[in-house]
Specification:
mainly beta, Immunoglobulin-like, signal, single chain, Ig_I-set, five-stranded mixed sheet, 3 domains
Length: about 300
């Protein structure tokens, strides 16, 4: 359906004079969209009376004219917009950067009253290829430094860093670059282990990249659990543990003599008097190249012996 010249001229005159009638139709605020996305413009206070004419325009460009029995969309927008007569909402999709600007709604009621309102749209480029680049070498507590850099393309208005879903804040050991796109941690501590998240954002869209850091430490706090005094002929197990990342390996000595036990548990199936002595557990971390030991004294006594 083509718009008649007389109707077209009438609507343009209404649009022109509407500039001086004030903003009768209110919108919640500016709209934001991403290239290729969609947006909906809808007045917060659509008229409750019958409407004879509705007009949407972008700047000075007509988008559509709706009358009581028909809606005409100009060819430039014919495959990119839809219109809801009940709410007066205009949906625009397949957004382009040049869609940014002022959108104006003009309506003429059955009583001949002209109402106008306008809102704005800012279209942003999509944010793509967001990723984090971190250290490739193994990180050791108290020795290593970690640099994490973020990269991405598009319209980026802010960069936010998180660690394990909580905001990452600067400190004496955590320093952000001036553009906030990289962070340096030196020296690393075990508390720096976790998942780091960097979000690139603009008012219309956001993209997040993640990176996990593992801080190697230990072994430390080596301890041996087990009985101190046992009867002759019983089964005994001594269990060795240590705080370590990665998990420590273990070796045992009895009275400074090496054994072939390389597990965290030293088991004696049937005790005799030769099993009395000092049991030494050594924990070893193959990444940090560190070790730590703990000693446990075991006494084997006859069943009728006093303590």
């Amino acid at each position: 359906m083509m718009v008649s010249d007389s109707l077209y001229c009438t609507l343009w005159m209404l649009s022109f004079f509407g500039q001086y009638l004030g903003e009768d139709l209110q919108f919640s605020g500016p709209a934001n969209g991403a290239v290729g996305g969609s947006v909906v413009f809808a007045p917060d206070n659509p008229p409750s009376t019958t409407l004879n004419i509705v007009q949407w325009q972008f700047g000075t460009t007509l988008i559509l004219i709706a009358q009581s029995d028909s809606t005409t969309i100009v060819p430039e927008y014919s495959d990119r917009v839809s219109f809801d007569r009940n709410t007066l909402a205009l949906e625009l999709w397949d957004l382009r950067l040049d869609d940014s600007g002022i959108y104006r709604l003009t309506v003429v009621t059955s009583a001949g009253e002209t109402l106008t309102g306008e809102t704005s749209l800012q279209v942003f480029e999509n944010i793509t290829n967001v990723r984090l680049i971190g250290p490739e070498e193994l990180l050791i507590e108290g020795e290593s430094s970690a640099n994490i850099s973020s990269v991405g393309t598009g319209s980026i208005t802010s960069v936010q860093w998180m660690k394990d879903n909580s905001p990452l804040s600067p400190s004496n050991s955590i320093i952000f670059s001036s553009d906030n796109r990289s962070v340096s941690i030196s020296p690393v501590q075990r508390s720096d282990s976790g998942e780091y998240q960097c979000t690139y954002r603009n008012p219309a869209i956001s993209e997040t990249a993640t990176l996990s850091l593992i801080i190697n430490y230990g072994p430390e706090d080596v301890s041996i659990k087990g009985e101190d005094v046992v009867d002759l002929g019983v089964r005994v197990s001594l269990s060795c543990s240590a705080n370590s990342e990665p998990a420590a390996s273990f070796s045992w000595k009895i009275n400074e003599t090496d054994t072939d036990v390389t597990t965290d548990t030293f088991t004696i199936d049937y005790t005799d008097f030769t099993h009395s002595g000092d049991y030494i557990c050594t924990a070893w971390n193959n990444v940090t190249k560190r070790s730590a030991t703990q000693q446990h004294t075991l006494l084997v006594k006859g069943k009728n012996s006093s303590n």
